[in-house]
Specification:
3-stranded antiparallel sheet; single chain; Arc Repressor Mutant, subunit A; 6 helices
Length: about 190
Protein backbone atom coordinates (compact mmCIF):
# COMPACT_ATOMS: atom_id res chain seq x y z
CA UNK A 1 0.00 0.00 0.00
CA UNK A 2 1.29 3.44 -0.85
CA UNK A 3 0.99 6.59 1.21
CA UNK A 4 -0.40 9.91 0.09
CA UNK A 5 3.12 11.32 0.23
CA UNK A 6 4.35 8.52 -2.07
CA UNK A 7 1.55 9.13 -4.58
CA UNK A 8 2.23 12.87 -4.62
CA UNK A 9 5.99 12.36 -4.99
CA UNK A 10 5.36 9.83 -7.78
CA UNK A 11 3.25 12.32 -9.75
CA UNK A 12 5.89 14.99 -9.32
CA UNK A 13 8.75 12.77 -10.50
CA UNK A 14 6.60 11.54 -13.40
CA UNK A 15 6.17 15.17 -14.49
CA UNK A 16 9.94 15.69 -14.33
CA UNK A 17 10.45 12.51 -16.39
CA UNK A 18 7.87 13.65 -18.94
CA UNK A 19 9.73 16.94 -19.42
CA UNK A 20 13.23 15.47 -19.43
CA UNK A 21 12.36 12.69 -21.87
CA UNK A 22 10.37 15.12 -24.06
CA UNK A 23 7.33 12.94 -23.50
CA UNK A 24 9.18 9.70 -24.09
CA UNK A 25 11.12 10.59 -27.21
CA UNK A 26 14.49 10.66 -25.44
CA UNK A 27 15.09 8.08 -22.70
CA UNK A 28 16.89 9.35 -19.61
CA UNK A 29 19.10 7.55 -17.12
CA UNK A 30 17.36 6.94 -13.79
CA UNK A 31 20.43 8.39 -12.04
CA UNK A 32 20.12 11.67 -13.96
CA UNK A 33 16.40 11.88 -13.21
CA UNK A 34 17.05 11.19 -9.52
CA UNK A 35 19.76 13.87 -9.38
CA UNK A 36 17.48 16.37 -11.14
CA UNK A 37 14.73 15.95 -8.55
CA UNK A 38 17.01 15.50 -5.56
CA UNK A 39 16.27 11.85 -4.79
CA UNK A 40 18.28 8.70 -4.26
CA UNK A 41 18.24 6.60 -7.47
CA UNK A 42 16.59 3.68 -5.66
CA UNK A 43 13.77 5.91 -4.42
CA UNK A 44 13.37 7.46 -7.87
CA UNK A 45 13.13 3.96 -9.36
CA UNK A 46 10.46 2.95 -6.81
CA UNK A 47 8.37 6.06 -7.50
CA UNK A 48 8.67 5.66 -11.27
CA UNK A 49 7.51 2.06 -10.95
CA UNK A 50 4.56 3.26 -8.88
CA UNK A 51 3.53 5.49 -11.81
CA UNK A 52 3.85 2.67 -14.33
CA UNK A 53 7.01 3.88 -16.07
CA UNK A 54 9.31 1.27 -17.57
CA UNK A 55 12.95 1.28 -16.50
CA UNK A 56 15.12 -0.89 -18.70
CA UNK A 57 18.92 -1.06 -18.54
CA UNK A 58 18.91 1.96 -16.22
CA UNK A 59 16.90 4.11 -18.65
CA UNK A 60 13.47 5.59 -17.97
CA UNK A 61 11.13 4.84 -20.87
CA UNK A 62 7.62 6.20 -21.21
CA UNK A 63 4.83 3.73 -21.82
CA UNK A 64 2.09 5.65 -23.62
CA UNK A 65 -0.50 2.87 -23.49
CA UNK A 66 -2.74 1.69 -20.68
CA UNK A 67 -0.99 0.32 -17.66
CA UNK A 68 -1.60 -3.44 -17.43
CA UNK A 69 -3.14 -4.87 -14.32
CA UNK A 70 -1.35 -7.01 -11.78
CA UNK A 71 -2.32 -8.95 -8.69
CA UNK A 72 -2.21 -5.84 -6.52
CA UNK A 73 -3.38 -3.13 -8.94
CA UNK A 74 -6.05 -3.15 -11.63
CA UNK A 75 -5.48 -2.15 -15.24
CA UNK A 76 -5.83 1.58 -15.82
CA UNK A 77 -5.71 4.18 -18.55
CA UNK A 78 -5.17 6.95 -16.00
CA UNK A 79 -1.42 6.85 -16.55
CA UNK A 80 -1.38 7.56 -20.27
CA UNK A 81 0.33 10.75 -21.27
CA UNK A 82 -2.21 13.55 -20.92
CA UNK A 83 -2.16 15.48 -24.22
CA UNK A 84 -2.41 18.81 -22.40
CA UNK A 85 0.61 17.95 -20.23
CA UNK A 86 2.36 16.85 -23.41
CA UNK A 87 1.89 20.31 -24.96
CA UNK A 88 3.23 22.01 -21.85
CA UNK A 89 6.14 19.59 -21.38
CA UNK A 90 7.37 19.77 -24.97
CA UNK A 91 6.26 23.26 -25.99
CA UNK A 92 4.90 21.76 -29.20
CA UNK A 93 1.35 22.19 -30.53
CA UNK A 94 -0.98 19.22 -30.14
CA UNK A 95 -3.66 18.09 -32.59
CA UNK A 96 -6.13 15.67 -31.03
CA UNK A 97 -8.55 13.81 -33.26
CA UNK A 98 -11.02 11.66 -31.35
CA UNK A 99 -14.47 10.12 -31.58
CA UNK A 100 -17.05 10.95 -28.92
CA UNK A 101 -17.84 7.62 -27.24
CA UNK A 102 -21.45 8.70 -26.58
CA UNK A 103 -22.45 10.15 -29.95
CA UNK A 104 -19.87 8.88 -32.44
CA UNK A 105 -19.19 12.47 -33.52
CA UNK A 106 -15.64 13.37 -34.48
CA UNK A 107 -13.94 15.70 -31.99
CA UNK A 108 -10.92 17.72 -33.13
CA UNK A 109 -8.89 19.88 -30.79
CA UNK A 110 -5.75 21.91 -31.55
CA UNK A 111 -3.86 23.70 -28.78
CA UNK A 112 -0.47 24.88 -27.58
CA UNK A 113 0.88 25.21 -24.07
CA UNK A 114 -0.52 28.75 -23.98
CA UNK A 115 -3.90 28.60 -25.68
CA UNK A 116 -6.56 26.61 -27.45
CA UNK A 117 -6.39 27.25 -31.20
CA UNK A 118 -9.52 25.37 -32.30
CA UNK A 119 -12.23 23.04 -30.99
CA UNK A 120 -14.67 21.20 -33.26
CA UNK A 121 -17.45 20.88 -32.32
CA UNK A 122 -17.21 24.17 -30.39
CA UNK A 123 -18.84 22.76 -27.24
CA UNK A 124 -16.59 19.69 -26.97
CA UNK A 125 -15.41 18.87 -23.46
CA UNK A 126 -12.63 17.00 -21.72
CA UNK A 127 -13.49 14.10 -19.43
CA UNK A 128 -10.82 14.02 -16.74
CA UNK A 129 -10.18 11.40 -14.09
CA UNK A 130 -9.11 12.53 -10.66
CA UNK A 131 -5.96 11.02 -9.20
CA UNK A 132 -7.08 10.48 -5.59
CA UNK A 133 -4.89 11.22 -2.62
CA UNK A 134 -2.49 13.54 -4.41
CA UNK A 135 -1.80 17.00 -3.02
CA UNK A 136 0.10 18.93 -5.68
CA UNK A 137 0.68 22.00 -3.51
CA UNK A 138 1.54 20.45 -0.15
CA UNK A 139 -0.43 23.27 1.44
CA UNK A 140 -3.72 25.13 1.71
CA UNK A 141 -4.02 26.10 -1.99
CA UNK A 142 -5.28 22.71 -3.14
CA UNK A 143 -4.92 21.96 -6.86
CA UNK A 144 -6.79 18.84 -7.92
CA UNK A 145 -4.70 16.30 -9.84
CA UNK A 146 -6.60 15.43 -13.03
CA UNK A 147 -5.68 13.49 -16.14
CA UNK A 148 -7.51 13.80 -19.47
CA UNK A 149 -9.09 10.46 -20.33
CA UNK A 150 -11.19 11.35 -23.37
CA UNK A 151 -13.09 13.97 -25.33
CA UNK A 152 -16.86 14.23 -25.68
CA UNK A 153 -18.80 16.27 -28.25
CA UNK A 154 -20.62 18.20 -25.49
CA UNK A 155 -21.23 18.33 -21.76
CA UNK A 156 -24.55 16.55 -22.33
CA UNK A 157 -22.80 13.75 -24.21
CA UNK A 158 -20.43 13.29 -21.25
CA UNK A 159 -23.25 12.94 -18.69
CA UNK A 160 -23.21 9.13 -18.79
CA UNK A 161 -19.43 9.01 -18.34
CA UNK A 162 -19.73 11.35 -15.36
CA UNK A 163 -22.34 9.09 -13.75
CA UNK A 164 -19.97 6.12 -14.11
CA UNK A 165 -16.95 8.14 -12.93
CA UNK A 166 -18.23 10.04 -9.91
CA UNK A 167 -14.76 11.38 -9.08
CA UNK A 168 -14.32 12.58 -12.66
CA UNK A 169 -14.62 16.11 -13.96
CA UNK A 170 -15.99 17.43 -17.24
CA UNK A 171 -14.46 20.72 -18.36
CA UNK A 172 -14.44 22.80 -21.52
CA UNK A 173 -11.21 22.50 -23.49
CA UNK A 174 -10.00 26.02 -22.51
CA UNK A 175 -10.87 25.38 -18.85
CA UNK A 176 -9.00 22.08 -18.85
CA UNK A 177 -5.92 23.70 -20.40
CA UNK A 178 -6.06 26.42 -17.71
CA UNK A 179 -6.38 23.74 -15.01
CA UNK A 180 -3.44 21.83 -16.49
CA UNK A 181 -1.34 24.98 -16.34
CA UNK A 182 -2.25 25.35 -12.62
CA UNK A 183 -1.26 21.71 -12.05
CA UNK A 184 2.08 22.27 -13.75
CA UNK A 185 2.72 25.44 -11.70
CA UNK A 186 2.05 23.43 -8.54
CA UNK A 187 4.30 20.58 -9.70
CA UNK A 188 7.14 22.93 -10.55
CA UNK A 189 6.82 24.86 -7.29
CA UNK A 190 7.70 21.72 -5.37
CA UNK A 191 11.12 22.31 -3.78
CA UNK A 192 12.97 19.32 -5.32
CA UNK A 193 11.79 19.77 -8.92
Amino acid sequence: MTTRTDRTAAVRIAWAATKLTRAGRHPIAIGRLAATVGLDPGEAHRLMDLMGFVIRDGLVLMDRGPRPGSADRPASDRYRVDLFLLAIATGEPVHADSVCPATGARVRVHFTRDRVLSVDPPHAVVAASRLPGIDLTLGPDYVEALVCTQFFASKEAAAGWLLENIDGRVLSVPDYLAHTRRMVAALEAWPTI
